Amino acid sequence: MTEITDFGLVITAVAGVFALAVLSNKLSERFAVPAPAIFLLAAALAGRLFTHLGNELSIRDVERLAVVALIAILFDGGMRVGWRRFRASLVPIASLGVLGTFATAGLMTLAARYLFGFGWTSAGILGAALAPTDPAVMFSVLGKREIGGRTGTILEGESGVNDPVGIALMIGMLELATHADATFWVVVREFAVEMAVGLAIGVAGAFLVIQAIRRIDLPNPALYPLRTLAAAGVVYGVAAIAHGSGFLAVFVAGIIVGAADLPEKGDVERFHTSLASLAEIVVFVALGLTVNRVPLGDTSVWLDALLLSALLAFVARPLVVAPLLWPTRLRRGERLFVMWSGLKGAVPILLAAFALLEHVDGAERIYGIVFVLVTFSVFVQGATIPFAAGRLGIPMSSRGGNP
């Protein structure tokens, strides 16, 4: 009976962690600290106090958990944004999601090369890891609040688009780092193929899903949310097998499916929002448990990460966002709010984990820098979003209607 007792202890511990994580959402509302920050900090402390927890979880396990979590988060995010809101802000979302990601990666690559002594390839990998914002954090911070104007849609849409762009860029950079005969053309080709295939499969998959839902009735209404969940997984898998961006495919499919008039739509949306919240908890807990792989005793990692955080928030992000938003009809306060709200989270850590798995030079240092930078972004920038909205004149209220 030892196996049953031991496994019962594991179930109790995991269920207790999830219960505390759910209750932490109330704490995050009271103290204006994003829920992902609480998950990350609690898991990091647990990983330091009970080192066997982190040792049981490999980087590959974390990578796979993050991928599954992002499928749920991006599909739900796409459904929440919807085609109508997305279309109204298509130009700023596309420019920030694509051009902004490349520009941010380029600026951070230059900073890593000339200010922190990285080689060109390692600097490019670090720049690619730091370029995308994070949907788990953005949807967590913005999803509980109604934001006046288009800024909320732009930020949510950007975080959904720039993750596939950043991942495709990172895959190309890793090809460049691990193959002696590779050239920068590999990065360009990888990006073009992933985006084109992912977009095509996302659109085609969404229309097939919509037709299947409308034509095939299920005997139990409780099965409708499970059907869309299975569809999201199939869309991701087909795109990945076809060497496309599965994340882009899932996000696009979510946007199109979310705009369709489907049976039991309210229940389906509530299910996916709850599932995305659970996925957010899982991915940040898993990432926090990897704290033992971060060289916290190396002060240069901390210093580099904090300096890069300042450069990213106060120099790179404004330099990139300002010209891209110039043609958009936004007030000055709205532009500044978008500049400040480029939050980092699970995706940059996932990209740094790719570098660890490929054993590229300096991967441990890159992972440590990204981990510390993400912690800074989630805690400092994430916690100041409501304050920044108030100072910049951005109307923001809770979904329940309370200011």
What is this entry, summarized?
By secondary structure, the chain is an all-alpha fold.
Corresponding CATH architecture: Up-down Bundle
> Describe the biggest sheet?
2 strands, antiparallel
Residue-averaged pLDDT: 85
Number of domains: 1
CATH fold title: Na+/H+ antiporter like fold
- What is the name of the CATH class? Mainly Alpha
What general outline do the C-alpha atoms trace?
A: globular
The rounded Rg comes to: 20 Å
Query: DSSP helix count?
Result: 17
Q: What pattern of helices and strands is seen along the backbone? A: HHHHHHHEHHHHHHHHHHE
Largest beta sheet: strand ordering:
1-2
Helix content, binned percent:
over 70%
Structural class: mainly alpha
Q: Termini, distance in Å?
A: 54 Å
- What proportion of the residues form beta strands (DSSP E)? under 5%
Q: Count of DSSP E strands?
A: 2
What does this protein look like?
This protein is 79% helix and 1% strand. It is built from 17 helices and two strands. The protein has helices at residues 2-31, 35-49, 51-55, 59-88, 90-114, 120-130, 135-143, 151-178, 184-215, 223-241, 246-259, 265-289, 299-325, 332-340, 346-357, 363-383, 385-391, and strands spanning 145-147, 396-398. It has a two-stranded antiparallel sheet with strand order 1-2. The longest helix is centred in the middle third of the chain and has 32 residues, at 184-215. The radius of gyration is 20 Å and the shape is globular. The N and C termini lie far apart (54 Å). The model has no long low-confidence stretch (mean pLDDT 85).
